[in-house]
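Check the record.
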Amino acid sequence: MKRALLAWRTADFKGVRRMAAELDRRVPERTHERAIVLAIVYSLSGNRERAMSWLERGVADRTISPTELRDPLLDGVRRAPRFTALLRRLGMAQ
Protein backbone atom coordinates (compact mmCIF):
# COMPACT_ATOMS: atom_id res chain seq x y z
CA MET A 1 0.00 0.00 0.00
CA LYS A 2 2.93 2.35 0.59
CA ARG A 3 3.75 2.26 -3.13
CA ALA A 4 0.14 3.07 -3.96
CA LEU A 5 0.19 6.06 -1.60
CA LEU A 6 3.42 7.33 -3.13
CA ALA A 7 1.99 6.95 -6.64
CA TRP A 8 -1.16 8.79 -5.58
CA ARG A 9 0.79 11.64 -4.00
CA THR A 10 2.83 12.06 -7.16
CA ALA A 11 -0.32 11.97 -9.31
CA ASP A 12 0.63 8.67 -10.96
CA PHE A 13 -2.97 7.44 -11.15
CA LYS A 14 -2.17 4.75 -13.71
CA GLY A 15 0.36 3.41 -11.21
CA VAL A 16 -2.25 3.42 -8.46
CA ARG A 17 -4.71 1.53 -10.66
CA ARG A 18 -2.04 -0.99 -11.62
CA MET A 19 -1.16 -1.53 -7.95
CA ALA A 20 -4.84 -1.94 -7.03
CA ALA A 21 -5.20 -4.71 -9.60
CA GLU A 22 -1.98 -6.33 -8.37
CA LEU A 23 -3.12 -6.19 -4.74
CA ASP A 24 -6.48 -7.61 -5.72
CA ARG A 25 -4.70 -10.68 -7.08
CA ARG A 26 -2.00 -11.06 -4.42
CA VAL A 27 -3.49 -10.28 -1.01
CA PRO A 28 -4.74 -13.46 0.68
CA GLU A 29 -8.49 -13.90 0.53
CA ARG A 30 -9.41 -13.76 4.22
CA THR A 31 -7.17 -11.19 5.83
CA HIS A 32 -8.25 -8.08 7.67
CA GLU A 33 -5.97 -5.97 5.50
CA ARG A 34 -7.45 -7.18 2.25
CA ALA A 35 -10.77 -5.32 2.38
CA ILE A 36 -9.58 -2.05 3.92
CA VAL A 37 -6.36 -1.86 1.90
CA LEU A 38 -8.13 -2.56 -1.37
CA ALA A 39 -10.92 -0.11 -0.53
CA ILE A 40 -8.35 2.61 0.16
CA VAL A 41 -6.28 1.89 -2.94
CA TYR A 42 -9.35 1.81 -5.17
CA SER A 43 -10.59 5.02 -3.56
CA LEU A 44 -7.24 6.68 -4.26
CA SER A 45 -7.32 5.46 -7.85
CA GLY A 46 -10.75 7.00 -8.38
CA ASN A 47 -12.54 3.66 -8.76
CA ARG A 48 -15.46 4.32 -6.41
CA GLU A 49 -17.40 1.21 -7.43
CA ARG A 50 -14.57 -1.18 -6.53
CA ALA A 51 -13.76 0.77 -3.36
CA MET A 52 -17.38 0.56 -2.23
CA SER A 53 -17.58 -3.13 -3.08
CA TRP A 54 -14.60 -3.80 -0.80
CA LEU A 55 -15.98 -1.58 1.97
CA GLU A 56 -19.36 -3.31 1.88
CA ARG A 57 -17.72 -6.74 1.80
CA GLY A 58 -15.42 -5.86 4.70
CA VAL A 59 -18.25 -4.48 6.82
CA ALA A 60 -20.44 -7.51 6.03
CA ASP A 61 -17.77 -10.02 7.05
CA ARG A 62 -16.62 -7.79 9.92
CA THR A 63 -13.05 -7.40 8.71
CA ILE A 64 -13.57 -3.62 8.57
CA SER A 65 -14.58 -1.88 11.76
CA PRO A 66 -16.82 1.19 11.67
CA THR A 67 -13.97 3.37 12.93
CA GLU A 68 -11.89 2.48 9.88
CA LEU A 69 -14.51 4.16 7.71
CA ARG A 70 -13.29 7.50 9.10
CA ASP A 71 -9.89 7.10 7.41
CA PRO A 72 -9.14 10.26 5.39
CA LEU A 73 -7.78 8.07 2.59
CA LEU A 74 -11.40 7.11 1.91
CA ASP A 75 -12.36 10.70 1.11
CA GLY A 76 -12.68 9.68 -2.55
CA VAL A 77 -15.82 7.68 -1.75
CA ARG A 78 -17.21 9.70 1.13
CA ARG A 79 -19.78 11.53 -1.06
CA ALA A 80 -20.94 8.37 -2.81
CA PRO A 81 -24.55 7.45 -2.04
CA ARG A 82 -23.44 3.88 -1.26
CA PHE A 83 -21.01 5.19 1.38
CA THR A 84 -23.74 7.27 3.00
CA ALA A 85 -26.06 4.26 2.96
CA LEU A 86 -23.33 2.10 4.52
CA LEU A 87 -22.87 4.62 7.34
CA ARG A 88 -26.64 4.72 7.90
CA ARG A 89 -26.80 0.91 8.15
CA LEU A 90 -24.10 1.09 10.81
CA GLY A 91 -25.85 3.90 12.68
CA MET A 92 -23.08 6.37 11.83
CA ALA A 93 -24.86 9.29 10.16
CA GLN A 94 -22.36 11.50 8.35
The chain has one domain: 2-89. The longest helix spans residues 13-26. Residues 2-89 form one domain.
